[in-house]
Design brief:
1 helix
Length: 317
């Protein structure tokens, strides 16, 4: 996600009606930051794809990770989640390379203060977790390196990572302009790229769902290889939907509510364990900064996050 501003380029999908209120935009790119004449293709079907379900390459009866959010279990209490990146300084709390306007906080966050600031973006109720992004006062901003928004991030770095498998999240996203929710995978070894984005959504375009990869290009002289598909889900901000990724040694298959959206060959640098990140960012060139006269306040709600191993995770090709 540290280079997610790459995703600002060329978003003009063709829409395909899949029924049940789901429109698929088959927008296919390999964006190499303005150097991509040779674009690989995301394979797709023009008819509704069959549901991804057992029996299949993964086993729903044996999940490797299951979070139903009956409580928020942080790593400090023996749970799977941390609330910041594994970087030093301010980079632990925001991605400055994206131009984001929030600091990721939790109950114990102190910023530059000797004591906790009393901020908490996480709410657990009825088996769901809500992450809220909201403006802070000038007094709090002065203790948050001048940032005017607080929001939340959860990561399984150091607690859970997996190579290949099926990953899914059931969530209700946002329609608040300038907010930017995402669920993504990063390498456990700390390298970047690669990156797999199960979904990204912009509050200013609440019906569009972006599903992407970022990887090192096979061709020398190109900074990044980037692919994405765009699905239009009219109720993404008002109803829960399940966003899934089936990752195997040969391909990545994206799905929404069990229906296949797109496929892309597994890049050469995506054969290593990766951990989970879910977050609600604010602002930046792609999401657009909040209007100072109308501060952004909004949330995303997560029902569950799950992962499953493949039945036969063969060696990389």
């Amino acid at each position: 996600m540290s280079q997610r501003a790459l995703a600002a380029a060329a978003r003009h999908p063709r829409l395909l009606h899949l029924g049940s209120g789901l429109l698929l935009g088959l927008s296919v790119f390999a964006v190499l930051l303005a150097v991509a004449p040779d674009m690989p293709t995301l394979a797709h079907n023009h008819a509704p794809a069959p549901e991804i379900a057992t029996p299949g390459p993964f086993d729903r009866q044996h999940p490797t990770f299951a979070e139903d959010f009956n409580q928020l279990r942080l790593q400090a209490q023996g749970g799977p989640w941390r609330t910041s990146f594994d970087y030093a300084g301010i980079a632990a709390y925001t991605l400055t390379t994206n131009g984001e306007r929030q600091i990721y906080v939790d109950r114990d966050f102190r910023g530059t203060s000797p004591t906790p600031l009393g901020l908490n973006p996480f709410t657990v109720a009825d088996g769901t977790l809500t992450i809220t992004a909201a403006p802070v006062s000038e007094a709090l901003s002065s203790r948050m390196w001048g940032y005017r928004y607080a929001s939340g991030l959860l990561s399984t770095k150091h607690a859970f990572a997996q190579r290949y498998g099926y990953f899914e999240i059931r969530a209700r996203l946002t329609a608040t302009p300038s907010l930017w929710p995402a669920f993504w995978l990063l390498p456990a070894d700390g390298s970047w790229p690669p990156e797999i984005d199960l979904f990204e959504q912009l509050g200013r375009e609440p019906a569009k769902i972006y599903m992407s990869t970022v990887s090192k290009p096979a061709e020398a002289g190109k900074p990044f290889a980037y692919t994405h598909a765009v699905a239009t889900v009219p109720t993404a901000a008002s109803a829960f939907h399940t966003y899934g990724l089936l990752w195997d040694p040969h391909q990545l298959t994206y799905s929404i509510d069990g229906k296949e959206i797109a496929r892309v060959p597994t890049p050469a640098d995506m054969h290593r364990p990766m951990y989970l990140v879910v977050n609600l960012a604010v602002g930046g060139p792609w999401a657009h900064d909040p209007d100072p006269k109308q501060p952004a306040r909004g949330s995303m709600t997560i029902d569950y996050i799950r992962a499953y191993a493949l039945r036969d995770a063969s060696s990389p090709p």
